Amino acid sequence: MASLLRTIYDAGVIVGTLGMLLALGFLLWTTAHGTFNLLQFHNHESGTFSKRSLDGLSSDSVSGVSGYTGNSIIMPIIPGVTVPFSHIPAILFAVFYSQVVHEFGHAVAAAVENMPITSVGVSLTVVVPAAFVGFSNDLFDALPSRARSRITAAGPFHNLGLWFALILIGWSGIGDMFARIAGYKDMHHIGPVVVRVDEGSPLYHHLIPGTIITMLDDTNLGSQDPLTDIWTKYLTISKTQDVQQGWCVNEQAWVNVYVVLFINLTTLQIGQNPAALVEIRMKNQIMDFHKGACVDPVPILTQSTPRCKTNDSCSVGHVCMRPARNEQLLRLTFQRPDTEVQQSIVWSGPRKEVWEEVEVCRFASLSSISPIWLPNVFDTLWQYLRMATLSLFFLNLLPLPHMDGHKLLNSLLDVAFHSDVLEGEIYDVEALQSMDGHRNQRGRNHGEWKRRISIYVPWTTLCIVTLCTVVTLVKL
Questions:
Q1: Contacts of 63 (CB under 8 A, 6+ apart)
Q2: CA distance 73 to 63
Q3: Most-buried pick from 105, 132, 182, 318 (CB within 10 A)?
Q4: In 3D, which of 56, 100, 69, 45 has the Cα closest to residue 324?
Q5: What are the pLDDT digits (tens) for 287-307?
Q6: Half-sphere exposure of 70 (CA within 13 A, CB side)
Q7: 433 contact partners, CB below 8 Å, separation of at least 6
Q8: Cα–Cα distance, 344 to 304 (Å, whole number)
Q9: Tally of CB atoms within 10 A around 110
């Protein structure tokens, strides 16, 4: 049994080595990509507003007003900023469970190597629980390098195994089968299902629990992949998407036509009908100077108004209009749980507020006795568990000081430079004493290279991680 486990954990060392290389490569690419985008945005921002023209705003300058998106590759989990506060219990449980699996891997591999465990337990830092397994440093360092590699790589290896198990369970449809038995139906092909809306939100009386949101503006929320979260992506991106199609509006709807400059209007709230700024498409394109008009956006955006791309698409006496780029209008199309009739409402304000105030899931309740919030609890926990265990796999394999990656790097260097006695290897002492000076010098050179790599790689990685963290936080 021990021999079989050693073979398995030898494979874990190979996987861990590849994981370390992938983690380093991804870290370097993400840092370079984020830094380039940040510098590009800074240069664009400084040039965009250096000159103001009374002829109007170009599309590039308007896009600069919207802010920097950066196309972030890594999105940090910050409750209240990138995820709702209600997700905190699921996040803590997922991280703790992933750590238990991680430490269990170290413990099993240590037992295989007859390495005694000095301590095992759970700690609490502020409110974050953590699991740990402790070994004697002297006894650990005395082990052969391959044994140390197996013990070190076993933790991340178990995290990767858990991730694969969760993926396979998700692909197998077992979760959907249990959901149907419990009285729920997966609606990801139509759109997210409303679980609850904050009582203080203007949407509270419009989006009742069980409502299916099918579209945001012209973006269909249905997806063939149940893991694709179009809802979150659309509402949390910082740059407002340009509306590709406008609406045919009667020319008599124009009021107070003027040239659009840096204008901030107080636009509609749910249940109110003040005017909102719209752009007018003329001569088959938006004019070089952007003429606008104050009109009521609710009838235009929520009724069956003909869509258009140019004035030629509209009937006589109508023009093609769309909301101005600096207007924060969001059209939500939905259907109530008891009907398939599509309805629309218009939200005025930052789109992220909708994401913060409306909780959704992908399961609809088929029975009055099945609480609509229950699938969301399990789905949220499932998503964070997958994210946490995969994150621990890559994060722990980074060669940072005091991390598994650093210990694995040292063990691999010992194997590469033959710095210790390998398992089952016996040296002839007289032969060792008779080695010539050339081999001694080569051994000293190897030792010096090992020392340099062991020192410089972890601290260089730490600097890159710090830079990546700063760039990511600046982009939020």
A1: 239, 325
A2: 21
A3: 105
A4: 56
A5: 333 455 566 777 778 777 788
A6: 24
A7: none
A8: 10
A9: 21
